[in-house]
């Protein structure tokens, strides 16, 4: 291996890429500006929408409830409900969002309750619609309180203490320190995010230095020079890897800075766990995650180079990159699903294994046997991908497809 | 000097499950200080032959010797001794003219003062000093062609291979290329040019080889071909050769 030749190719490819507007957008502008903007912009928008919906007093309709003045007046007096006159087509009224929820009371509700009998109250909601859900929650809370009060009255009338219905209380205790709770939350998201960033950062440069060069005819000119094809592919690969890791580092720095800024601006109003997670990120854990994800970046960079080499044109390569992204994202996001835990068989599944072990590391659990097994297998997959790329670069039918 | 002996290249056509003999037993000999023209229609095997000479492809059988080096056993030595100019300028648009030539110089293992000296020499010969620091994508087609020539000349190769070098060029740029090919001959380089433009071959080549379906069907100087096929016009000669007329 001639490292001087590799450096010559790497140096040229990096210079060439950094002058390309499309690489700058995919490597610097998008991750540094757009990703935080999207995450926090969308987060702030959602927070604002939810807060506004919560503050709004929902319009509800009462259907039935004849001869029940007590419950009707209590409902009308409730501060978190706005009762509107009932109409027959209450379902349509809900669909058209004129009312958010409807409660259907049986006739003589007050009498039935006073008699000590049982009856049924129906609450109608438009499932999936946030404001309707809040209105139904308010109605539900109202009737739960009424039910509790009725039970207490009935027990008191019979001289039975309330405790007879609650012989003991239950307290759930958390044994994990807050940092690990936060690590769990961040650990689910961070590895997937890094894998996606590895791909997005490497995608454009990888296709440009392979399919793009084929299309422009420059690859043929370079292949006529006395440089080994292995050196040539290594120079290109190292540049793609640089773009991949550079994108990850820039994105995380940008996100970290945005988090800190957001924490200062919206301290108190944003979810506590999210703010806490950044404040408690352990640098050792973060370094561990980076180390585990390094062979993944190598594998993905090599895979993208293979796609580029396989394609006849830049456009063809770009169209293959979309499905590759999906293929990589499914196992990467699999680790974020609740209930998916690290075990011996999942430890061999590429991408999913690294995502899972990173989740554990971020939660402060260093399972060294799994870490070594997964790091070893990830290195093996990365080596295989890189070896295949080098092999493809030696194939005439790959380089001169026509 | 370029010499081939029974040079053959077979491709596997996976779609139709058959073998395609793109180059079929070609024997040719190009001497220093002379221009050899490889004349053939599209798909005749010209580009494949030149790629075999440039070691971009490996022969299926036969031998190739370029500038005293065996192309199969010593491909890197062969590549160090050739300059390859193909259709299109094949430049990196985002690099400047100087950076492009520098890159190819470094790939040919020319470094430091030697490289800077060569760049000065080549740029001065081709009149490129004015636009040496402009990006290639901002250059006119004539300027691009000069950069392309400069990158093939930077290591001063004894053998020059041109694959349809004037295709798609305007008259003035094509003349620059033709002039450059003649200069290579004057400097004693071995030159091989593929073309399907008869007038170009007539004006430029000392030796002409007519290739069709991978086979070298006729070879000689223009005068020898005229005498052999009893025709004055190269186009008539070409048609007779390809159609198998005596």
Characterize the structure shown.
The complex is a heterodimer of chains A (about 400) and B (about 250). Chain A has 15 helices and 4 strands. Chain A has helices at about 5-20, 20-55, 70-75, 90-95, 110-115, 130-160, 180-215, 220-225, 230-265, 270-280, 285-310, 315-335, 350-360, 370-395, 395-400; strands spanning about 60-65, 80-85, 100-105, 120-125. Chain A is elongated, with a radius of gyration of 30 Å. By secondary structure, chain B is an alpha/beta fold. In chain B, helix 3 runs parallel beside helix 5. The radius of gyration of chain B is 19 Å and the shape is globular. Classes of the chains: A mainly alpha (about 400), B alpha/beta (about 250).
Q: What brief labels describe this structure?
A:
heterodimer, A: 402 residues, mainly alpha, four-stranded mixed β-sheet, 15 helices, 4 strands, 4% strand, elongated, B: 246 residues, five-stranded antiparallel β-sheet, 11 strands, 26% strand
Give a quick rundown of the structure:
Chain A is mostly helical.
Distance between the termini of chain B: 31 Å
Beta-strand share of residues of chain A: under 5%
Rg of chain A computed from alpha carbons, rounded to a whole number of angstroms: 30 Å
- Counting DSSP H or I runs of 4 or more residues, the number of helices of chain A is 15
Query: What's the rounded overall pLDDT mean of chain A?
Result: 85
Task: Let me know the average pLDDT of chain B.
Answer: 90
Oligomer: heterodimer
* Largest sheet composition of chain A: 4 strands, mixed
According to DSSP, the number of beta strands of chain B is: 11
Main sheet strand line-up of chain B: 7-8-9-4-10-11
Main sheet of chain A: which strands, in order across? 2-1-3-4
Query: Quick one: how many beta strands of chain A?
Result: 4
Please state the structural category of chain A.
mainly alpha
Estimate the helix proportion of chain A, in percent. Answer: over 70%
Number of helices of chain B: 9
What pair of chains forms the biggest interface?
Answer: A-B, 24 and 31 residues
Give the overall shape of chain A. Answer: elongated
Regions of chain A with pLDDT < 50 over 5+ consecutive residues? none
Low-confidence runs of chain B (pLDDT<50, min 5 residues)?
Answer: none
SSE series of chain B? EEEEHEEHEHHHEHEHEEHH
- Fraction in helix of chain B: 25-40%
